[in-house]
Amino acid sequence: MNIQDDILVALRRITRAIDLHSRKVLKASGLTSPQLVVLQALKKNGDLYPSSIARIASLSQATITSILDRLQAQGLITRQRCTEDRRQILVSLTVQAHERLRDAPELLQAGFLREFDKLESWEQLQLLASLQRLAELMDAEDIDAAPILEVGDIAKN
Amino acid sequence: MNIQDDILVALRRITRAIDLHSRKVLKASGLTSPQLVVLQALKKNGDLYPSSIARIASLSQATITSILDRLQAQGLITRQRCTEDRRQILVSLTVQAHERLRDAPELLQAGFLREFDKLESWEQLQLLASLQRLAELMDAEDIDAAPILEVGDIAKN
DNA sequence: TCCGAATACTTCGAAAACGAATCTTTCTTC
DNA sequence: GAAGAAAGATTCGTTTTCGAAGTATTCGGA
């Protein structure tokens, strides 16, 4: 009926697929997708602050804290207070984490991304462009809503 | 660096935007996006079984149960055992739900979909097509994985 | 130097989401 | 007709996710 409804349905199908994939990865490796994202960010960039991880992964700081809690409980990361700025905490991979990542290096690439690989290059770029366009539109929501509120603020002065 | 990483980042930005929007709607209306989706499905289709709602919304039955629990706690739906097939339960909107939906009819359409409306028709269709293509790729993951397992099954016989 | 603002992280509470297990009811097969 | 399979819904346990509130630390200005 409505193109907007179709968009919402497609988005819902995608988020569901992401969730189901995460659970499949969990059964195979004992780690969820978000946990793997955090570990791979650390592998790629070296030691990081929680706030940096949050920025890289597009997650809130609170979410990162809870993911780090579980990774630490599994002995995959360590937290170490910074000496210069004692508000910050440096997160490092443990030896076990490196082993774990070596054993299962491409878990995130599995599944849908294998399918994605089979596509022509132009189609891959097309899909990426569409996703980034949508992400912009959705991020813009907050920014666009602000001026509407400001009208009220200005009226108050 | 990698186009696959970019895809994952864009997907993460989109799911985050969906979550943030849901929380904003919650503050404005007292209902989250998934709750509104369920209510609007009932408004559009009339009384439904939980399994039907799950199919329409692309959610698991367990998730629907918990959403219905909250809607029922708010007095917005009623559950009624079927007389013909007593395994099934018929979910209906209450009078309050109809009022609530009349007062806030387009909450889901708010935000990003307003932006979406401003786009040219061809771009809207382009974005929809890309999303549906991705949803197919991601749904295909399970289907594609199955035959691989079957090889082992056949070998066992 | 000291006090309030800003920053970094954690804690808390709540919704969402799922699979697996469970319960009830219906259907199928013998 | 009874035993077992199948189907519909719920319950349970877990992770993710967030904002808001709380804590500790640093910074900036008076």
UniProtKB/TrEMBL annotation, chains A, B:
Pfam family of this protein, just one? MarR
Keywords of this protein's UniProt record, alphabetized?
Answer: DNA-binding, Transcription, Transcription regulation
Q: Which domain of life is it from?
A: Bacteria
| PROSITE patterns (UniProt xref) | HTH_MARR_2 (PS50995)
The HTH marR-type domain is annotated at 4-136
The protein in question is named MarR family transcriptional regulator
